[in-house]
Amino acid sequence: MAHHVLILGGTTEARQLAGRLAARKDLDVTLSLAGRTTNPVDQGVPVRIGGFGGADGLADYLRDNAIELLIDATHPFATRISPNAVTAAVKAGVPNLVLRRPQWQRQDGDRWAEVPTIEAAIAALGAAPRRVLVTLGRQELRPLENAPLHSYLVRSVDPVEPPVVAPDVRYILDRGPFKTANELELLKRERIDTILTKNSGGDAAYAKIAAARELGLTVVIVSRPPVVGEAVSSVSEAEQTVTHLFPPAT
Ligand code: NAP
Fold first, then answer.
1. Residues whose CB falls within 8 Å of the CB of residue 128, separated by 6 or more in sequence, listed in order
2. Which residues on neighbouring strands pair with residue 3, listed in sequence order?
3. How far apart are alpha carbons 132 and 138 in whole angstroms?
């Protein structure tokens, strides 16, 4: 009988882990997405889409589908689903493995203003007008309206609806992974002086940080919320843990 594994995803790591685990015939892997992105990239395994209805709903799903292992590989800034996963796993009596990519570390030459919240990030832009590249989630943009003096270039995967109400907001649609050379070109072309982003970690979105360092630009960066419980930090470590829990049949 195959072991049922549910991966809470929405990240590159979740997709990569799902692909590796699905290669094992004795694992039955389902990947769960919140449904935020209109055309998510092919995940390579069976996918279910949409919220569970809180921790209780997730616990019901785990029981109803005889899930034997829950893997929370959601984004570090997805702050509601992870505590729900902890609660649901306890209720359903299922182990919860957390995969959380490491955060970016400040390097020599970085000009970071580290802030705890998006509101604090907006305040940190200051009283003089700036030209800001904004790479926040579509749901996190409203606070920009409190600082209408700046010029904003907002990058997102899907269109921002409704648009931000401020005098100078433009939008670009793009999806990572991004390359440093392209980020340098964008930052120069748009005469950006500040990047407003979150410390998401990972490789796919790091290019803007490297480009900002090269150009000496300010990065206003929202710090990570704390991880609930223990976490592994790489796809390989997560795969090893799964191998330990469910040794492959020889
Ligand atoms: P969130 O605030 O933690 O979650 C909000 C609600 O969305 C949850 O309570 C849950 O609904 C549902 N949900 C979240 N992740 C889910 C998943 N993988 N499968 C099924 N339902 C899920 O999360 P968010 O910040 O809105 O992010 C949503 C998704 O986008 C996450 O899966 C995350 O991995 C991905 N993502 C987030 C960011 C970010 O910066 N926040 C960036 C890139 C990707 P119910 O309570 O109804 O179960």
1. none
2. 27
3. 16
Listed residue (148, 170, 145) closest to 159, CA to CA: 170
CA of 46 to the centre of ligand 1 (A): 18
Q: Report residue 79 CA to chain centroid gap.
A: 10
Cβ of residue 30 lying under 6 Å from some atom of ligand 1: no
Angle at 15 between CA 20 and CA 228, to 5 degrees: 105
State the DSSP code for 204: T
* Residue 20: both structure tokens together: 């590796």
34 within ligand 1 shell (Cβ under 6 A): yes
Which residue do the tokens 């005469």 mark? 191
Ligand 1 pocket residue status of 9, Cβ below 6 Å: yes
Q: What share of the chain is helix, strand, coil (3-state, %, to 5)?
A: 30, 25, 45
State the pTM of this model.
0.92
Name the residue among 204, 201, 196 with its Cα closest to residue 221. Answer: 196
pLDDT tens digits, residue range 151-193? 999 999 999 999 999 999 999 999 999 999 999 999 999 999 9
Asked if 111 and 216 count as a contact pair (C-beta separation under 8 A), the reply is yes
Per residue in 203-228, pLDDT tens? Answer: 999 999 999 999 999 999 999 988 87
Asked whether 135 lines ligand 1 (CB < 6 A), one says no
